[in-house]
Amino acid sequence: MDGKPITKEVDSMAGREVELVISEDNTATFNLTQRVSSWWRRRRKIQNLNGRIFVSGFGLFADGYLSGIIGVVNILMRRAWPKEYTPERQRLLTSITFAGIVIGQLGFGWYVDRFGRRNGMKASGIIIIVSSLLTAIPFPGPIPRIIDLLATCRFFTGVGIGGEYPSGSVACAEAAALRPEGTRNRWFIFCTNIMILGGFFAANMIPTAVVALTGEHTPDQCSNAFHILFGIGTTFAIIVFTFRRFVDEGEQYEQARKDRVEISYKTVISYYWQSLAVESFIWFLWNVTSFSYTIFAPRLIEMIGTPGQSLVQVFGYTACIMMFHFPGAVGGAYLSDRLGPRVMLVLGCFCQTLMAALLAALWAKVEIPAPAFIIIFGFFAMFGEAGAGNNIGLIVSQSAATPVRGKFYGVAAAWGKVGGFIGTHSFIHLIDSFGGEESKWGISGPFFVCGGIALLTSCVGWWGLRNVKLDQKSLDNRDREFAAFLEGK
Predict the structure, then answer these.
(1) 19 with 64, same domain?
(2) Which residues lie below 8 Å from residue 99, measured CB to CB, with a gap of 6+?
(3) Where's the Major facilitator superfamily (MFS) profile domain (predicted)?
(4) 36 with 90, same domain?
């Protein structure tokens, strides 16, 4: 024997070929280094499909927390720095976050189609970790300069949050498409919208405990509280980034990359402009209402509550409202597989319209007790999640082919965030235009407007999406249709 391999076997544990070498003295040896290292590399990867779906969408939990925490932080910063944290600076801090999110959605939409969903998730995660960590550090110096530093960091946090939409959500959709038919929609919703809701719920529940521990009676206590809250968001982002290191690229994107298909934004808009316009408009309308009442929920609780109530009570009531989101999201996820995302979007938004009208009419006529207000408000939010909250991202993810899915999703999500920006900044002016915080119509009027927007969303979804073919095989169908379009050019 000359010591060369004479047979090859497949290692059942690593799934790779292992060489069996017989030397001149008839001693048989395995290439153990290759065997062990191959097994270890495989062990480190998340091979389970459900795990891949979960980890791809898990980043949206951290994003939901870091987005939702700003409503609580605004209250704490007003109490910590009542003179320096002016309404103009408050609007700046909120606005610059939205600007960062839109830039991240558009930029990462191109990035993930060019370099991969996995690389997009890693890049956005690093941006979120660094920027949110800087907001958690209590830097010394003049307070106006500290506020400007926080605004700068929140801009980059927004860029990272925006990057999660075309990277994490698209990766989640492509992984969910590999599950058995009849379960794909619910898995996407579980790992995207419900993750975001979990982050928003944590952004309302965690402050209750933090403020109870730090106190709320001095500026230093309030300052410590919001720095701790930002630090908790950094911890979530680090956990997400750690798990995502073990996720491989999806099969659909790998195939598209092998085909070396690179498509510009111009081609995406020219081919998909109709569905992109309708879905972007729906996402815009949904975020006008959802962001406004979610971010300003603590403020509404302050307005309807008893004078002098503590922040622990305010945050606790707000967390109770957030709990209503989950039954709507979970139940709506299963119905989305049975009825389809278009029907559920329309049905959920119509029911939300009814709840908004009921809440506004009751409050305008009689000042109902705070618990009753919270319950009706909770049903209003619950139907919204079962409708547009669950299904608009799902519909967008199923409407474009793999080579352009990141760009398509990024553009639609960016229009959604523009709606969120408008809703957030117009809500206070809406309250003032209906008589202010001391007036009954100051609370009822904005809910009449939100109900009208929900009704418009329902109508646009019913008629505007009737030509968008959505089923359990939508991703494969979009790939075939787009390939035929490219061949015909």
Answers:
(1) no
(2) 155, 158
(3) 52-469
(4) no
Helix (H, G, I), strand (E, B) or coil at 22: strand
Number of structural domains the chain divides into: 2
pLDDT at residue 306, as a whole number: 65
Residue 247's SS3 state is coil
Domain match, 178 and 226 both: yes
Q: Which phi and psi (to 5°) does residue 366 adopt?
A: -140, 145
Query: What is the pLDDT confidence band of residue 415, given thresholds at 50, 70 and 90?
Result: very high
Write out the two tokens for 28: 């048989």
Q: What is the CA radius of gyration of the chain?
A: 25
CB atoms within 10 A of CB 479: 18
Comparing 201 with 255, the larger pLDDT belongs to 201
Query: Is the pLDDT score of 292 beyond 50?
Result: yes
Helix or strand run (H / E) with residue 21: strand 16-22
| Most confident by average pLDDT, 233-237, 293-297, 302-306 | 233-237
Evaluate whether 400 touches 266 at the Cβ level (below 8 Å): no
Q: What are phi and psi of 216, to 5 degrees?
A: -140, 15
Do 339 and 396 have their domain in common?
yes
> pLDDT tens digits for 91-117?
888 889 889 999 999 999 999 999 999
Give the domain extent around 408.
45-488
In this prediction, residues 124-129 reach a mean pLDDT of 95
Residue 410: both structure tokens together: 């990024």
Q: Determine the distance from the C-alpha atom of residue 353 to the mean position of all C-alpha atoms in its chain, rounded to a whole number.
A: 24
- 31 and 154 part of one domain: no
**What residues pair up with 22 in beta bridges, in sequence order?**
28
**Which residues, listed in sequence order, are joined to residue 9 by a DSSP beta bridge?**
18
The answer to whether the CB of 159 falls within 8 A of the CB of 102 is: no
Number of Cβ atoms within 10 Å of the Cβ of 44: 9
**Could you tell me the pTM of the whole model?**
0.85
User: Strand, coil or helix: what is 372?
Assistant: helix
Task: Check if the beta carbon of residue 411 is closer than 8 Å to that of residue 103.
Answer: no
What does residue 469 show for φ and ψ, rounded to 5 degrees? Answer: -80, 110
Task: Note whether 36 and 62 are same-domain residues.
Answer: no
Max Cα distance, the chain (Å): 98
139-172 pLDDT, tens per residue? 888 999 999 999 999 999 999 999 999 999 999 9
Q: Name the DSSP class of 404.
A: G
How far, in Å, are 50, 193, 326, 393, 394 from residue 172 at the CA level?
Answer: 10, 11, 20, 11, 10
Quick check: 186 pLDDT over 90?
A: yes
Same domain? For 214 and 140 the reply is: yes
For helices 405-433 and 265-295, the axis angle rounded to 10 degrees is 30
Q: For position 382, which CATH number holds?
A: 1.20.1250.20
Using one digit for the tens of pLDDT, what is the confidence trace for 317-330? 887 888 899 999 99
